[in-house]
Amino acid sequence: MDGKKESYVKKDVYQVVTDRIIGLLESGTVPWHKPWKGGNQAPQNFMSRKVYRGINLFLLNAAGYPSPFWLTFKQVQLLGARVKKGEQSFPVVFWKILEDVQEGETKRIPFLRYYTVFNIAQCEGINAPASAELPNNGNFQPLDTCERVLAQMPKPPKIIHDGTRACYSPLLDEISMPKAELFESAEAYYSTLFHEVTHATGHLSRLGRKEICEPNRFGSDPYSREELVAEMGAAFLCGHCEIENKTIDQSAGYIQHWLERLKDDRKLIVHAAAQAQKACDFTLDAQHAIDEGPQDPHPKEYKIVSLRECPTPQSMQMCDTPQKAVEYWDQHVKTHPHFNPECECFVVLLLNTRRRIKGHHLVSTGTLDQVVVHPREVFRTAVIAAASAILIMHNHPSGEPQPSEADVKVTRDLIRAGQLMKIEVCDHVIVGLGCHMSLRELGYFYN
């Protein structure tokens, strides 16, 4: 690589983005509040017409140029144009996948990179298309574009219009809103509602963000992170609907608060924007890749790849009792760095025809008192690894292994799914603090 590209690799990309955001805040601009035009007027590459996403949308929109079109320096040259003398470039970040081959195994490692772009207003020799103005709405009237977004949202939360303030209750999965007529404009109403809708996407039945799934006190770090995600999510949705985002208080105290947060955590703004983009995509029922580069349309060949060796004494390889399953759990599951004893972790032990352990798979990590499990994920590795049977396990962080009604229901659902695929579910063992319970021994496999 030449020296210029090498400098991009060595720089801390998170710090590049965070420094840019801090500079905007110090100048009095909240970049995720400033409205942009959606649709064809969103910040996009001039040649490909591909709309920028995630943190890039905020970075480029906050530049303040009337045109939504951007180009790399090389693209400017290809068009026979040139960048005006003294113009400053702007960073665009994207994810790059590094493939590391060790001992015949390939590991895919994502890392953040960036390149720079110029607005076509900074260039000479390019005819820029005219930009449309934002609509000017007066008295409150329902906006069709916003109503369509709400109508098409998968698994939408309940919205009640009898509250004195706007808020979202994760416990009830319910949004409470003041009556629409009380807002100063339709834009103010929908931007406030989109803020709460973004919160709702974090519910366990949707994207399962831990900041929503776990209780957090006002002002705590998780609470602040979730508020930033909701503010950015509302901005994304407002941009999609081509309305102004009016959910942010641009007071000096508000700006100073985020300046302190960003200076303490250089990764906060990038990660929050990524979560906000996922929330927006879920709300719009859209599926997109996480990077800004071209997408590979070709199918791929897949294979199962073991993650690590689990040395096990011969006496522990037979898994025909709940106690032996717990011994394997203690040795290989709860000692792994990915295991979190403060959350419910759902694990599948893969067994051969003689009920010897072939391996295990950490299917899902949940919250303090629940974990989402789907038969597809439970049996996927068992099918690929040609397991004859499985034994399912999960922990109760409370230390009490007594099964809940949900535990029993999940067990019976998995038993029926296993019967269809001729893969026996031998047992479901719940691990507590120094104790365990077997649902088979409790009789739940026979009712």
Keywords:
single chain, 447 residues, alpha+beta, Cytidine Deaminase, domain 2, 2 domains, 5-stranded mixed beta sheet, 4-stranded mixed beta sheet, 14 strands
Question: Judging from the principal axes of the Cα atoms, what is the shape?
Answer: globular
Strand order of the largest sheet: 11-10-12-13-14
| String of helices and strands | HHEHEHEEEEHEEEHHHHHHHEEHEHEE
Strand content: 15-25%
Structural class: alpha+beta
The portion of residues assigned to helices is 25-40%
- How many domains? The number is 2
Strand count, sense and closure of the main sheet?
5 strands, mixed
Count of beta strands: 14
The total of helices stands at 14
Q: What distance separates the N and C termini?
A: 66 Å
Rg over C-alpha atoms, rounded to the nearest angstrom: 26 Å
> Which spans of ≥5 residues are poorly predicted at pLDDT below 50?
1-10, 132-138, 288-295
Would you tell me the overall average pLDDT?
81
